[in-house]
Every structure is written in structure tokens, then in C-alpha cells.
Write a structure and sequence with these properties.
Order of helices and strands: EEEHEHEHEEHEEEEEEHHEEH
Number of helices: 7
Mean pLDDT: 89
Radius of gyration: 19 Å
Low-confidence stretches: 18-22
Distance between the termini: 36 Å
Shape: globular
Strand content: 25-35%
Number of strands: 15
Helix content: 25-40%
């Protein structure tokens, strides 16, 4: 049975206060006409068949956000805004004194409750994912997969090849996926200190020592395909998360990979890992910017994108 609801693209952009080199990194111009990374993701999503974009941002950023991208995108596809605010906690909970940042990617997606009632794809604002993953996730979300099995969620994620996601300018942290023989996710191991080496890649082990890691392994770049009932799950999970906070903890975050991991471990979710061989890029270090600009130029030269995205 094909779902009649067309999938929605959700872009997590509320962390835009994290500055690099003086600017808001998600709003740095990368394309020949001032396009930012998000422009390319939205273009790819429209091409893949998504027909609405929901930006998760903050109220204090809305004016800037609309000016830089929102109003432009609204001319080509319906746009809605959801707001992730630190103060947005369920009744009975309060924000601990001294905490300044919102609660992480789980809360960002939860902000879409009431706005998103369709299967949806979640991405980061400042990552370039390539065309293939949008198509794969779109097709998964409109297929009969997205109908919930008995008490079980059916989700998916883009599985990037680790070697395609490394920076030339320093170490990165990636969620390395453990996958079974059916290409279902068993777990995600957050792995830090990953660098390119002559033979492939190296990372930090649990004691902080450098060890070789397989550049062909799949990693999660926070590109998930969910069904709308996941939003209810996030809501109840957020209450649990807050009730387990330790006194004085002002840093802990409610994170998508952890939430998905718990659902898998408790047998409540199946997550298909959809392999993409596209090269990811993003701006982890300010030295990455010229690489991104160059990569986009090359994609335009190869005919993957028009010189001007939205005529």
C-alpha cells in the first residue's frame, strides 16, 4: 500500500549560533551566486519528490533566516517553521540554572510535533549529503515500509561510507554503524578523533589511543527517515530523559542516535541502512570552506546542478 502523504523535509538549523570565523556557519555563501549548503540539500530533496520543507530554527534567528534563505525557498516549495527553544520543556519540568543551550537533536525534531503529520526526512543544515540519499530515503518513506508493523517502527537512515566523510583539516567524530546481514542497524558507535591516513582512516579507541578503523564502514550523518508517530515517541522520551537528569547537569543532550538506538535495542524499531556512495562534505573547520566551494563548482561543471539553482 502506497502512502498518500507526501514526505516532508525537516532541516535542523537551530544550532546556528555556533559561530566559526565570525559568521553563522550554516549561512556562509558556498555557491557561485551566494547559495549556502542548505540550498543544495533542498534542491536535491525537491528533485527526489519531497514537497514541503520545515525549518527548525530559533525565534531570535527567524528574521535573519528568512532573509538569507527562507523567503527564497518559499517561492519554490511550501515552507513552515518550527522553533527549538531552551525553555520548551514539558509541564512539571524546569530548565536547570546555568544551562544556555537547547536540548539537542531529539528536541529539535520534537519541535515539529503538530506541524509534521507525514513521513519525514531529517537532515542537518550545514551538511551536504549528495543526491542519492534523498532519493533512497524518499522512496523508502513512500513505500509500504513506512506503515508501522505490529508495535514496531520502520525507519531508515542514509549510510555514508566513512572514507567519504572525512576532513583534510582535522579530526572528526562520526557515528559508526553496526549493521546486520539484512542491512538493518544494530547500533551506532559514536567514534571520535577520526582522521585520514595513508592506508585509510584511524580513530581514537575507548582509552584515547589511535587505532586503525575501516574506511569502508557505514556512518550516520544524522540523515534519518521517520514516520510521524515517531514524534509521539520523542515526546514521551523527552519526559523520561528530563526526569533522569542529574542535579547540576547543564550540558546533557537528548540526541536522535541515542533515541533510535534505544528503540532498536528494545526491539521496537527496525532501521534500514540505505547505502549511499556520494561524498559528504561540510564545514567542520573554517579551512573546509574552500574545499566545499571547490566541490560545488565541480558538481556544477559535471552538470549535477545548474549555475543558478532557483530561477
Amino acid at each position: 500500500k502506497i502512502m498518500s502523504k507526501k514526505p516532508v523535509l525537516v532541516i535542523m538549523a537551530a544550532g546556528m549560533g555556533s559561530r566559526f570565523g565570525g559568521g553563522i556557519k550554516q549561512l556562509e555563501a558556498m555557491g557561485p551566486n551566494g547559495e549556502i549548503i542548505m540550498d543544495y540539500s533542498i534542491y536535491d530533496a525537491i528533485e527526489a519528490g519531497f514537497n514541503k520543507v520545515v525549518f527548525v530554527t530559533r525565534k531570535d534567528l527567524l528574521a535573519t533566516f528568512k532573509e538569507v534563505i527562507g523567503d527564497r525557498i518559499a517561492k519554490v516549495i511550501p515552507v513552515e517553521y518550527a522553533f527549538q527553544e531552551l525553555s520548551d520543556v514539558p509541564e512539571g519540568f524546569s530548565v536547570p540554572e546555568g544551562r544556555t543551550k537547547p536540548w539537542g537533536t531529539g528536541q529539535a525534531v520534537l519541535a515539529c510535533k503538530g506541524i509534521v503529520n507525514e513521513p519525514f526526512l531529517v537532515i542537518n543544515a550545514d551538511d551536504y549529503y549528495g543526491k542519492e540519499a534523498f532519493k533512497l530515503i524518499h522512496d523508502f518513506l513512500v513505500s509500504d515500509h513506512a506503515e508501522k508493523a505490529e508495535k514496531q517502527y520502520d525507519f531508515c537512515m542514509a549510510g555514508f561510507i566513512l572514507g567519504n566523510t572525512l576532513s583534510d583539516n582535522g579530526a572528526v567524530t562520526r557515528g559508526i554503524c553496526v549493521v546486520d546481514e539484512n542491512e538493518h542497524l544494530i547500533g551506532v558507535n559514536e567514534t571520535g578523533g577520526i582522521v585520514k591516513t595513508a592506508t585509510g582512516a584511524a580513530c581514537d579507541d575507548k582509552d584515547g589511543n589511535q587505532t586503525a578503523c575501516d574506511p569502508a564502514s557505514h556512518v550516520s550523518m544524522n540523515m534519518w527517515g521517520f514516520t510521524p508517530d515517531f514524534l509521539d515517541e520523542l515526546e514521551s522520551g523527552f519526559r523520561t530523559f528530563l526526569s533522569e537528569q542529574k542535579e547540576g547537569d547543564i550540558k546533557s543532550e537528548y540526541l536522535l542516535p541515542t533515541i533510535v538506538d534505544q528503540l532498536i535495542k528494545s526491539g521496537r524499531a527496525n532501521v534500514s541502512v540505505l547505502e549511499t556512495t556520494d561524498k559528504w562534505f561540510g564545514v567542520t573547520y573554517k579551512e573546509d570552506k574552500p574545499v566545499v566551494v571547490e566541490s560545488i563548482k565541480k558538481l556544477i561543471a559535471e552538470g549535477k546542478y545548474p549555475e543558478k539553482l532557483y530561477k
